[in-house]
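Lecture notes, unit on protein representations.

Consider one protein chain, 235 amino acids long.
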Amino acid sequence: MALPKLNTAPKYELTVPSTQQKLRFRPFLVKEQKVLLIAYESQDRRQIVQSVLDIIEECVENVDIKTLTTFDVDYIFTKIRSKAVGEKINVNLKCKECNTQNEISIDLDTVNVEVIKQQMDIKINDQISLKMKYPDYDYFLKHDSIFENNSKSEILTQLVASCIESVQTDDENLRLEDESMEEVETFINSLSASQFNDIQSFIEKLPKIKKDVNFNCIKCGSENNTLLQGLDDFF
């Protein structure tokens, strides 16, 4: 007689931040946790991202992973993890006065994403405008130089490219996914400083999972306020 299969049906519901779509999910299982732990032990960011995406595909019902933004993925993973291992996680935060590491407990159920509506079209000049989009991890996995130890300027160029859906002229709409990375980088490098600043402003306002943390240092007693944002700050 075969042993029963446990914990395979979705039990919980979440709301996708970017679309407000309701999805059902289950906690990850031991077999999936092992894959995640191996990825974190490797300290390979590409492997970590891929394992997180794989877990979401396994645990979330009727999800199209390629339609999820980076902040959707981060938020969904925190929900899956909280139901699998527990709502509380411990993070080490450094005191701003004496640099002592403080272990602080965070409730994952209080971690949220604030999606502030912003202008998705950026006018470059009278003839050209950019249609912007929220970045996704599928793009980064296809152009994984962003996971390598590149310069900040190279990483920023990749991030900018991931946020531009198309270049619109009076005559045509050019989707960046149809162009070579060399062509994309040439276009980005041809922008003026003020034009590039408009794109940077869009990037700085990208939604992220966030949590304000207040604590008193265990050594010097100083009051600290730290903003945790993005998946790396929580795990």
